[in-house]
Amino acid sequence: MNKIRLLLAEDEVALAHIVRESLEEQNFEVTLCFDGEHTLKKYHESKPDILALDVMMPKMDGFDLAKKIRETDQTIPIIFLTARSQPKDVVAGFESGANDYLKKPFSVEELIVRVKVLLSANRLLERPLNGTGKENYTIGNIIFNPTRNIIQQGITTWQLTARESDILRILCQSGQDMIPRKTILKSIWGDDTFFNARSLDVFITKLRKHLQADPNVQIINIRGVGYKLVW
User: Fold this and answer.
1) Would you tell me how many other CB atoms lie within 10 Å of the CB of residue 43?
2) Cβ atoms within 10 Å of 207's Cβ, excluding its own
């Protein structure tokens, strides 16, 4: 199995070395940088499979670095590693070109899972339900079962309507990437008329209320473009 080549930018030196050593133990090839300018140089030199970027770095912050990279590369996955977890920071991260946003403190195990999701063919990590052979989705600490139209957190279960379940399934399949409104509308309703668009807005509002069980889970509206399901 080929090693995953990960470019890690983190200005907290102790944390950076811990993360690098932990990843290397899991068959990763890690290039380590401590500022934005050096990271940009190493990105061009090493051609990594994926980037894990701290936001607050000297010389060039993670947001500006991601924007610079996205000028010429729209495909390489980018994960932000940051203590800045306000909704506006999360939105700014995705708008700068990130595919995922991991809040500090984080476990290396969670970072590895997110890396594997972003590098998978459909950018989706699916898990079988116990004893059923079906599949579910893990959203933060919420489990979504699209077959039964339910979401679960611990021992608590919420029932979704079939339409709510269809929309949430499409959002999950996007792998935390932005999905256009037109894609959702045409997939579920068959067209993107004004009436159906308003219906989608209503169902998104209902889903947000259901997903409040985990405050880190958000459906972000990219105005006039589409939605991102993030956690």
Assistant:
1) 21
2) 23
Alpha carbon distance 124, 146 (integer Å): 14
Amino acid at 119: L
CA distances (Å), origin 77, targets 123, 129, 224: 10, 28, 24
32 plus 93 within the same structural domain? yes
- Cβ atoms 35, 57 nearer than 8 A: yes
How confident is the prediction for the chain on average, in pLDDT?
84
Domain containing residue 9: CATH number: 3.40.50.2300
Chain centroid to CA 148: 24
Let me know whether 76 and 106 are in one domain. Answer: yes
In whole angstroms, give the CA distance from residue 7 to residue 136: 31
205 and 142 in a common domain: yes
For the CA atoms of the chain, what is the radius of gyration? 18
Domain span at 57: 4-119
Number of residues written out for the chain:
231
Q: pLDDT, tens digit, for every residue of 127-142?
A: 443 433 346 888 888 8
**Sequence-distant contacts of 134-143: CB under 8 A, at least 24 apart:** 137/169, 137/172, 139/172, 139/211, 139/214, 139/217, 139/229, 139/231, 140/214, 140/216, 140/217, 140/231, 141/214, 142/211, 142/213, 142/214, 142/217
Whether pTM > 0.70 for this model: the answer is no
Pair 48, 22: CB distance under 8 Å: no
Q: What is d(CA 204, CA 96) in angstroms, rounded to the nearest whole number? A: 24
Q: Could you tell me if 112 and 211 lie in one domain?
A: no
pLDDT of residue 127: 45
